[in-house]
Amino acid sequence: MPQITLKPDREKSLLRRHPWVFSGAIDKVIGSPQTGETVDVLSARRELLGRAAYSPASQIRARMWSFNPKETVDVDFFRRRIRAALQNRSALGLAPLPQPISPWKIGEGVKAVTDSVRLIHAESDQLPGLIVDRYGETLVLQSLTAGSDFWRETLADLLLEETGATAIYERSDADVRELEGLPSRNGLLRGNLSSFVFPLTEYGLKFNVNIETGHKTGFYLDQRANRHLAGTLALGRDVLNCFCYTGGFSVHALAGGAKSVLSVDSSSDALALGRENISLNGLPADRADWLEGDVFFVLRKFRDENRSFDMIILDPPKFAPTAAQAEKAARGYKDINLLAFKLLRPGGLLLTFSCSGGIDAGLFQKIVASAALDAGIDAKIVRSMTQDVDHPVALNFPEGAYLKGLVCLKG
Ligand code: SAH
Question: DSSP assignment, residue 278?
Answer without folding.
Answer: H
